[in-house]
Structures are given as structure tokens and as C-alpha cells.
Amino acid sequence: MELRLLVRRDIDDYHINISQYSSLFVNYTTDERSLIQPLIEYFQPKSKVKNELRILDIDNDYEELSTSRYHAITFTNDALLEETKLGSKSLLKGQVKHSFLNNVEADGYINNINVLLEDLVEQSISELPVRPKLLTYDSIIKLLEIDLGLNMLNETNQFMHQNKLLLPILNRYLLNNLKQPGIVFFFYPETYLSPREQKEMYELLQIFSKTIPVFVITKSKQFLTREMSGMNYFIQSKQIFSSNFIEELEWNSPVNFDYSALQQSIMSILYRYADVFELKPELSNFEDAEVVLFRSIDLYVFSSLMYKMKYKFSLNLDGNQMYKPVYEYIMELYEKV
Predict the structure, then answer these.
(1) Count of other CB atoms within 10 angstroms of residue 163
(2) Beta strand 21-25 with 54-57: parallel, antiparallel or unpaired?
(3) pTM here?
(4) What is the pLDDT of residue 151?
(5) How many structural domains is the chain composed of?
(6) N or C: which terminal CB in the chain sees fewer CB atoms within 10 Å?
(7) Pick from 127-141, 149-163, 195-209, 278-292: least confident
(8) Which candidate, 81, 168, 177, 101, places its Cα nearest to that of 141?
(9) Which residues neighbour 310 within 8 Å (Cβ) at sequence distance 6 or greater?
(10) In the listed set 184, 210, 233, which residue is the last one of a domain according to the structure?
(11) CA separation (Å) from 294 to 269, 272, 297, 313, 325?
(12) If you ran DSSP here, which 8-state letter would residue 49 be given?
């Protein structure tokens, strides 16, 4: 899946990039809920915002997508914990009931239980004006509880353990029961997780996204997408990674950096330094600093990114260790910051 959507509300609009695994890295200028929540609410079976919002497919001649084109599902680590309670609206309850309904012997078991229950009441308390409430699938589910395991299989983090157990189950349930293609929006999967556990969680989401697209909203570099087509970064609700972003870099390049090399540089810099962009970092190509880059293409890309994002940064560059045109371009750009 690769989608570039234009979300239009009244006179305001913004772009969202969606691929099989997408990410939105949140900075201090980002009101992520105002950007993503309308999309989630739009793609619901009974959408309440369909008259307030328009979603257009940029790559398909700006075709307007109907609310039934996709089904958006929201996950958080806390929401997955709530799933273990088998609440009335939980997906896990839906999976349990689905499994019951697909068991050809389930009705026979329930009938036998109800017959035994009626016999118990008749034999034990027939003199009292009571009668048993016969069991149904829903009432049986209320008697169930999720067993995460006493020793948690050597896991020390309950959230990590539950996610390992639940995500594959929920994936199967969504695949089998959604009437429209699903997109899971996962808010802050890094919550409650150590750096090592975040890596494990990233791998779980990668597996999940092979069958159902996942869009992660995060403040952790670990959960960034590895594909430019799914990268999202907003400054004051303006998408940085628009369709022509790399073309602009290529066009403005002071030397002949090609498209693919520029894209690789962007992704590499994001993985390493996305969390320091907004902190007025120092950029150097010869000594220790918040951002250390040696290749001219990386120095050019980083400076261009910071300029486009309107972030402040400082320079500590050795012009003799880089292409002269790049050095001159960066110094000229820096004066505009």
C-alpha cells in the first residue's frame, strides 16, 4: 500500500503519507490528535464527520474517498491492556465469540450446560421461586478472563508480554472480520517500554503490518518507517515530506547529488537525529557535536531540512573537508535561518 492523501477541512488542508508501515514523528509544533483523529473518525462504519471532511487520493487524480473505503482502528498499549478485560466493544471479545460460533460442537456444549443447570436448580432449590438464566455465548464470555501466564514467560514488562500475545490474535481477527481494508493507527507504542523492548515492539508491528497497514504516531526514533513513502513530519500542521520534497532538494543542490542518494541521506539522518532537530543542535564535520556528519551530501541535506523546518541550529564546519559549493551553499542558507 502507498497512499498520499489530502485531508481537507473547510479551507484548511494537509497531506498524509500512508504505506504498509507508516510513521508520524511528533515534535513540539505538532498537534497530532488534530491531524490524525479526523482521519480515524472519517474511516468508520458510521462516520459522523463525513459532511465536515474530505479525503482525496492525490495519486489518483484527487479522487474523493468514501468513508467506507477503509476501516480505521486505534491501538495504544493501554488500549491493548483494556482488551484483556473482554469488554463489550473489545476486539478480543469479538475474536472469542467468533471462535465459539465457528466451533461446530459449541451449541451442543451450551445446550448440555443449560440442561445441567436446569436440573441443578430443579433438584436443589425447586421449592424456591427461582429459575436459572440460561447461558449464551455473551454470558459465557463474561465468565472468562485472559490468562497472560503466571511467570510471563520470563518477561518483566507486562505490556510487552501482552502485546506479544495479543497482536497476532487481533491481526487474525481483523483480517477475518473487517468488511473494508483496515488501517491500524498505533499511538505511542514506546509507552512503558525500555529501548530494548521498543526494538522488540517495532518488530511485532512490522510483522503485523505485513497483512494490515500500521500507522505509528511516535516520539521515538525506533518506530520510524524505513520507507520515504510512509514518512510524516509536520511543522505547524504543514507536511514536510510532500511529493516534491526530494525533487526540490535535487533541484537546489549545489552539486550533482542524484535522487536516490538524497533519499538515502534523508532517511539516514532521520534515524539518527530526528529527536534533536528541535533542540537547536550544533552541526560539525570534524569534531564532537549534537550532529556529526562527514559527507557533503549529508551536510547539505541536514542543513536543508533544518531550514525547511524553520529550526535553529549552529555550525562548526571545516570547509576544507567538504565540497566547496556545498560549504558556500550551507553558509548562505545559514544566514537566512
Answers:
(1) 25
(2) unpaired
(3) 0.88
(4) 57
(5) 3
(6) C
(7) 149-163
(8) 101
(9) 235
(10) 233
(11) 12, 14, 9, 17, 15
(12) -
